[in-house]
Amino acid sequence: MSNLINAIRVSSQKTPVKGAVIFLHGLGDTGEGWSWFPQLINQTKIIKNSDAINYVFPNAPQIPITVNGGYVMPAWFDIYAFGDPNARQDVTGFFKSCEVLKSLIKEQIEVHGVPPEKIIIGGFSQGAAISLATASILDFKIGGVVALSGFCPVKNDVLERHEKSGVNFNTPIFQGHGKADPLIKFDYGQQTSEFYKSLGFNNYTFRGYEGVAHSADDQELVDVMKFIHDIVQ
């Protein structure tokens, strides 16, 4: 299944592959929108052995988005109201995307031989929402999770599905959120972090960024690179 998933893949320049980063874009974007990240990583030299990492930037399917009048755009799930956890939610589409991410993780393990504890999943906005939920329902250990401007629109459903064995409760999670985000409010991001902590995740960092809207600023990206380095080194 995984080789059918449309994604931009930046392969490791060295073998053996030391790690993998799978990063999901936000609403209306594509994998190409984040495909510059490996080049930035190489330039900063924050991550040692960065040329021994596989990067995967999947493309979400094109679907009609209700809140945008049914306009078709790339999305990991439908949205009925922006930033409203109490609105109707696309539960089926949400967990279908979690399965897509799960298959991409397995591709790195089974096809590329990457140790699962060296695989980092992450995303921006919708992609962050999918990454956090996927980490909670996985029945095997991964390396870490990066969630930027993230949220959890389906708390009750995650609560029902989460892996109670706690296989990833110690897995490091980094969640960053702009304090000036008008779309996914900072408070919603903070509530999301508290929700996942309440499930049992105990290696969780939530960091706010002054003056940052619905985007990622330089300091946040540096923090992400340091986080990846600590896992892959």
Describe what you observe in this structure:
The chain contains 6 helices and 9 strands. It is of the alpha/beta class. It has one domain (2-232): Rossmann fold (3-Layer(aba) Sandwich), CATH 3.40.50.1820. The radius of gyration is 16 Å and the shape is globular. The model has no long low-confidence stretch (mean pLDDT 95).
Q: Which helices and strands, and how do they pair?
A:
Layout: E1 7-10, E2 19-24, H1 37-44, E3 53-58, E4 62-65, E5 71-74, H2 91-110, E6 119-124, H3 126-137, E7 144-148, H4 155-161, E8 173-178, H5 186-199, E9 204-209, H6 218-232
Parallel strand pairs: 2-3, 2-6, 6-7, 7-8, 8-9
Antiparallel strand pairs: 1-3, 4-5
In a few lines, what is going on in this structure?
The protein has 233 residues and is of the alpha/beta class. It has helices at residues 37-44, 91-110, 126-137, 155-161, 186-199, 218-232; strands at 7-10, 19-24, 53-58, 62-65, 71-74, 119-124, 144-148, 173-178, 204-209. The chain has one domain: 3-Layer(aba) Sandwich (Rossmann fold).
Strand fraction equals 15-25%
What is the count of helical runs?
6
Biggest sheet, in brief?
7 strands, mixed
| CATH fold field value | Rossmann fold
The CATH superfamily is Alpha/Beta hydrolase fold, catalytic domain
Write down how many β-strands occur, each being a DSSP E stretch of 2 or more residues.
Answer: 9
Largest sheet strand order: 1-3-2-6-7-8-9
Rg, Å, rounded: 16 Å
Structural class: alpha/beta
Percentage of residues assigned to helices: 25-40%
Stretches with pLDDT under 50, minimum 5 residues: none
Shape-level CATH architecture: 3-Layer(aba) Sandwich
Shape: globular
Mean pLDDT: 95
Q: What is the chain-wise order of helices and strands?
A: EEHEEEHEHEHEHEH
Q: How many structural domains in the coordinates?
A: 1
Distance between the termini: 30 Å
Q: What is the CATH C level class, in words?
A: Alpha Beta
